[in-house]
Amino acid sequence: MGRTDYLNDPTAPSANSIKVAVSAVVLDARGRILMIHRTDNNLYSIPGGGLEAGETVTGAVVREVKEETGIDIRVTTLVGIFSNPDHVIAYDDGEVRQEFSICFRAEPIGGELRTSSESKRVEWVEPDAVPALDVHPSIQLRIERGLEPGTDPYFT
Predict the structure, then answer these.
(1) What is the DSSP string of 58-72?
(2) What pLDDT shows up at residue 1?
(3) Could you count the other beta carbons within 10 Å of the beta carbon of residue 131?
(4) At residue 72, does pLDDT exceed 90?
(5) Fewer CB within a 10 Å sphere, N or C end of the chain?
(6) What share of the chain has pLDDT > 90, as a percent?
(7) Residues 154, 101: contact at Cβ < 8 Å?
(8) Which residues lie across from 77 on neighbouring strands?
(9) Chain centroid to CA 22: how far?
């Protein structure tokens, strides 16, 4: 299913749902960021997805990172809670979701890089190479905050 992200766009459709999502800024021992090239909107992103019934938010992010990248992680801290009502995501099925994502910092503990139905490319990216990638501003903000260890969690 395709999606279109709108940020501060007066022509964006109105949100008709909110779903808890999770994401992770995963940093390896060299300080590189685990990034995916998404299949649904063709943008680069950090891995993440929706919380499922019966899961904790940290359990969900561990599952989502594994599903999308093949990498096992350990969550280390909270980056922030991103809930900008001016960021909506329109899906092909008519759902228009207001952003609500809980982002964590994490470290890899195992696994092997691999793609999935949600990621056509998975790679470790040097932080200074991120600006050259096509990354949505909301994801860029999460990455920036995730690269600032020791700061208080971000929230909107």
Answers:
(1) HHHHHHHHHHHHSEE
(2) 75
(3) 8
(4) yes
(5) N
(6) 96
(7) no
(8) 105
(9) 7
